[in-house]
Amino acid sequence: MRRWNGWGDDTIQAHLPPGASEFLSSQVGVPVPGKDADLAAVCAQIEREQPSRLTGAWAHPLVETGAEARLRGSYGQSLGDWIALRHGRIGRVCDGVAFPEGRSQVRALLDWAAAHQVRVIPCGGATSVVGHLSPRADDPSPVLSLNLTRMRALTDLNEAAQLATFEAGVLGPDLEAQLRARGYTLGHFPQSFEYASLGGWVVTRSSGQQSLRYGRAEQWFAGGTLLTPGGQLDLPPLPASAAGPDLREWVLGSEGRFGVLTDVTVRVSRLPEDERFLGLFLPNWEAGLAAVRELAQRKTPLSMMRLANAVETLTTLKLAGHAGQIAWLERYLAWRGCGEGKVLLFLGLTGPHDQVVAAQREALRVVKAHGGVSTGQMLGKKWAAKRFAGVYLRNALWDAGYMVDTMETAIPWGGTTAMVNALEDAGRAALAGFGERCHAYTHLSHVYSSGSSVYSTFVFRRAATVEEAHARWWALKTGVSRAIVAQGGTISHQHGVGKDHAPYLGAEKGAAGLAGMDALIQHFDPQGVLASGNLR
Amino acid sequence: MRRWNGWGDDTIQAHLPPGASEFLSSQVGVPVPGKDADLAAVCAQIEREQPSRLTGAWAHPLVETGAEARLRGSYGQSLGDWIALRHGRIGRVCDGVAFPEGRSQVRALLDWAAAHQVRVIPCGGATSVVGHLSPRADDPSPVLSLNLTRMRALTDLNEAAQLATFEAGVLGPDLEAQLRARGYTLGHFPQSFEYASLGGWVVTRSSGQQSLRYGRAEQWFAGGTLLTPGGQLDLPPLPASAAGPDLREWVLGSEGRFGVLTDVTVRVSRLPEDERFLGLFLPNWEAGLAAVRELAQRKTPLSMMRLANAVETLTTLKLAGHAGQIAWLERYLAWRGCGEGKVLLFLGLTGPHDQVVAAQREALRVVKAHGGVSTGQMLGKKWAAKRFAGVYLRNALWDAGYMVDTMETAIPWGGTTAMVNALEDAGRAALAGFGERCHAYTHLSHVYSSGSSVYSTFVFRRAATVEEAHARWWALKTGVSRAIVAQGGTISHQHGVGKDHAPYLGAEKGAAGLAGMDALIQHFDPQGVLASGNLR
């Protein structure tokens, strides 16, 4: 069963690799693990302190009001969510959860909510890390979590046009299985793939690890249906159009504020003939940066570029286990010019065999010109095999006494290194305020011709009290968000805005942009049925 | 000097190639050329019948009110525009033209217009073929044409990020010259390249011939500044973002209804190391269609795919001149299996040499598997050399007694052939209503994994009277537009909406979509300063 207070299935238990604890202790200090809150106790507390208001005259046959469903419907996977759940210090939860089984039930629930002044928060796989799912603390209205995950059917596959239409609540593995049976793939693999939903990817403008070939949500989202409180927006899956504003952009990034996405048509591909992930090392950060920028600007047809900085590279090697093999690898790399300060680059190659071979030849030539050394597919295969298992490590780290958070942005080339330093510095400074050390490291998860994403991870010790834990997380979130804004980056390249990033949205949208967004929200949802506090 | 009543510079005189007239006569009948109206007479008529209202208390130092400037500011390049100008049957023209020389002058003019209830129609290179520039006949307000073409500076070039910022009025050749001097290209080459402006490309979602590599306006438009009647929208050139709705989409396709685009940051590329255009033939339409679809769905890194149907192929060969060489070529092609019904495919390859070589190898293998025959670069070189000269042929055709119009759409694969037939049939039926024949032919100008554009050309005889000429054009426009809508295509893949396509926009946007667009227009422009009738 899915964990209620951590990542993934509770039959899967990740373990820290040998040496990991020693390495992390050396970086941030010896941790003090603590005991997690108990689910039954938490549910009892919810029933006692916040009884559902969707009962009696406010009941609806599709709305469940059990405490566990309400708890699960109100939290995502942010560190703030974890802290609340693990410590059993629950904030406001929704009053009920509905699991509609089709577009007409969604329509009925939206109409019912409007008539009863109930706030609706649409929910997919509940993998948000930016606070999308929790009711606003300052909002007295009853809140319904509209969980779409029972809407999971492949309703149409146009093989000529490679267009597949799904109900929006389908989760990643289910979606891929339904496509694979017909010989297709969407190719969208964010780290949250195993639990994230298609509709969630669209409304948060999600980016997958191989978006370089398959596209971000913006590129593969071809059309669909958005039920707004007052109407229905039907978007035909045109290959391209110059007919005025592209209304798909009212769905992408809308985060449940304009309507509920019920049906999604996506651009799919035939299952690839060939796929490889190469692990390469470059002598230093600057060389790595120059190599990935050149590859992006040449438009070498790769499916993935992922460049770790020196600290992330070191951390990856330390946490890989197999210390003996790693030592041998590092001796070889040092001999080839990649010693201390070296950086690890993963390249993905996906597609027809001849294209993959040509792209690999081109990519290796470019990387080698920057002093890079290929280690072949061994590390890449390992990375690919563990790409969704890695998230489970967060559970093991928590149990061992560590907290982990990640923050990300994107910025044009020229500002990359300053942004990396600003994020890591801000993370360390935030924890230093508590007398704690923070192990910060960074990779570029997505590379474009004009710039890249910047994705930083922060590991630090758990706190003795929930107040202290929460304060550390919030100081980190605030400090790093401010650093992102100060450096001119976007407040999110791939996680979205939710409530946690909403205060920083104005920095990139401007007053005129926010006012326009408000006008559209007011137009689509004048009653505020969807006024969750996400985005705005 | 630029022609006032046709395409391009009046020192450039195109001539019909030998045999062209005979071929076209055989298709649509012997034409009867007529005499064009005289510019001086037309201007005198404007001064007499529609004196400018932007004089006296309504004068502004930046606004010119001469009749010729007003005439030139009120017409684009649609066939309807040509008919009006060539016959001297002028409709309503604007009351004045301003040529602002910077953002602050645009701001001042917008404020002045709002204060004086003057309608503003932004204008770039005046190459619209969908009626963007003419004042609405039913609108009594004075109209100002806001011509941005004196705003043409490259104001910033970030070489690391390959981001160039221009003032929005820069025309294609000027933009490319300024970039080429620094080693860069935007690579945006629509057929109207020589006179179209950067800002116009953005607000009409323009597509260039090599958009497969360089991207449509949606892909290369990174950010900029839109002056709305009440404010200013500043869009930072982020490489990607998941931070809510992408506000660039309020500029793309806005056609001057939300504001005036003054500054544009674009994603540029290094000048390509290698570029080739290959001419290939396939035995028939179905084979051609299958080949381009496969190339798009494999994501073979080409810069252009352009597939003519059999009638366009025949027409291209007939109008190429060089009958002897063409006959020899056709004998060779017939021997290789491409006889009657053969179709011509141009492939563009652009980029680093090694990438071009690999892509060419892959593309040729795919095309040959569908029975295709490559004729190397000879035809492609000819096409590339004449890519912007071809438009001048419209002048020669008019002089010879023919009218030409083009209509275009995009549709998912599966519907392509039905769409081609529907467009050509609708064109022929429209002219048959006048007892006239119509020579109709089609190519796919842009190919995507999920579908393609469909671009049809219609050649028919000029009429003796302006009323009859206008009626023929309008019957064609109406009939073909209805066919597009009936087949489920977009009302425009690359020309935009303007006033001519506005009645058909609802078919793809839906009532909820149009209402949302109206809400945004109302938000940005409550007074209707920009209520030109374009889009809505």
From TrEMBL, chains A, B:
This is FAD-binding oxidoreductase. GO terms for molecular function: alkylglycerone-phosphate synthase activity; FAD binding. Residues 90-271 form the FAD-binding PCMH-type domain. Gene3D superfamilies: 3.30.300.330, 3.30.465.10, 3.30.70.3450. InterPro entries: Alkyl-DHAP_Synthase (IPR025650), FAD-bd_oxidored_4_C (IPR004113), FAD-bd_PCMH (IPR016166), FAD-bd_PCMH-like_sf (IPR036318), FAD-bd_PCMH_sub2 (IPR016169), FAD-linked_Oxase-like_C (IPR016164), Oxid_FAD_bind_N (IPR006094). PANTHER family: ALKYLDIHYDROXYACETONEPHOSPHATE SYNTHASE, PEROXISOMAL. The active site is at Y455. Belongs to the FAD-binding oxidoreductase/transferase type 4 family. Keywords: FAD, Flavoprotein. GO terms for biological process: lipid biosynthetic process. FAD binds at P122, C123, G124, G125, A126, T127, S128, T204, R205, S206, S207. It comes from Inhella gelatinilytica.
